[in-house]
Design brief:
mainly alpha, Helix Hairpins, 2 domains, four-stranded mixed beta sheet, 6 helices, 78% helix
Length: 259
Amino acid sequence: MAKKKEITVEEKLRALYDLQIIDSRIDEIRNVRGELPLEVEDLENEIEGMNVKLAQLNDDMAAFETAVKEHKNTIEEANELIAKYADKLNNVRNNREYNSIVKEEEFQKLEIELAEKKIREIKVQTEHKKETIAALTEQQADKQKHLDAKKSELDEIMKETEKEETALIEQSSVFEAKIEERLVKAYKRIRGSVKNGLAVVPVERGASGGSFFTIPPQVQMEIAARQKIITDEYSGRILVDAQLAEEEKENISKLIEKL
């Protein structure tokens, strides 16, 4: 692996501040999207959950239909047996045979009553399932409309910003490549732990950007000298002088215009 070209502290500071400007612009673009990607994902998951539930409900309906057919077959078979028992009763030879046929006939009548009861219960359950399916289908349609609107909104934003964001991400990698890995890691660590992701800030009115704590004049002179990397003792942010910041803002602004 080729060793990175050694650069001066000032060049490192410029590269770090350029990286900060680029990454802050990427943050702005993503903030425009806000919670939309998460909202779209949540809606998609919710609709998928509804699809699974509807599939289960439809499976239940199919099972009910099968069960009703089975119970109707039971009734039909029982009626056929009862008809046969009626013929047999006309030809009985003794009481024992008579009682046996009557018991079988009574058993089949009980089977019919039980099957009819089961069919009535299934019909009640079927109506309840139909109501649930209708309500869930309506909810799903509403969610789908909401999802379509959110997707359309997100797509519109993505069309406006995707090209710029992709180009900026590439530029971010370019500036990262100019800085040694140790500094890049420090930058990312600070960026992840401070407000607004600002890891590199200029000195403004004697204080670090976004801070009310005054920086001693001697330290301000050291920052302006650009001879070493200096961090704010209160926030941990890397500090650059105002002039360098203005120069790099102008340079990056021109770069972004070309993207």
